[in-house]
Amino acid sequence: MLRKRSMMLSGHRTSVALEPEFWDALERMARTRGIGLTILIARIDAGRDPARALASALRVAALSEWMPALPPAGSGNRQE
């Protein structure tokens, strides 16, 4: 089940729906950095490829933080 949160990013109101586990991972990331969740999300938003949806960028950031051994997307190291 997705959990939706609303926030202000770059002066615009936006909503993001993520699974609770991803919200938990992002909250821990923010705490680790000593910043608020909205600031973390704004930083991720500012650094994402515009072709990638914000929700997707947040999921990838959480995975990259908590599973650093994952190869970057498109690296050809995927096992299927």
Automatic annotation (TrEMBL):
Entries under InterPro entries matching the protein: RHH_dom (IPR027373), RHH_sf (IPR038268)
Any Pfam family matching the protein: RHH_4
The organism's place on the tree of life at top rank: Bacteria
Residues annotated as domain Ribbon-helix-helix: 3-64
Protein name: Ribbon-helix-helix domain-containing protein
